[in-house]
Amino acid sequence: MKKCTDFLMKLKSFIDRDYVKYVGIFYLLMMVLYLYVMFGMGSEAPKFTYAEF
Fold first, then answer.
1. In which residue ranges of the chain is pLDDT below 70?
2. How many Å from the N-terminal Cα to the C-terminal Cα in the chain?
């Protein structure tokens, strides 16, 4: 149990608020970019119609 608490204390001191904040902002921006690409690709009008065949 002592090793576990020591590990958690070291982990807590390593990960401070700024690190978590910046990782969260980066993750949020990557998700927004991903969603923009996915929905932007689906909303494009097709360049051809099947009536041309």
1. 1, 42-49, 51-53
2. 72
Length of the chain, in residues: 53
**Residues 19, 27: Cα–Cα separation, whole Å:** 12
3-state SS class at 1 = coil
pLDDT at position 53 is 58
Burial of 5 (0-12, 13-18, 19+ CB in 10 A): exposed
Q: Which two tokens stand for residue 49?
A: 């119609």
* Residue type at position 14: F
pTM more than 0.90: no
- DSSP notation for 5-27: HHHHHHHHHHS-HHHHHHHHHHH
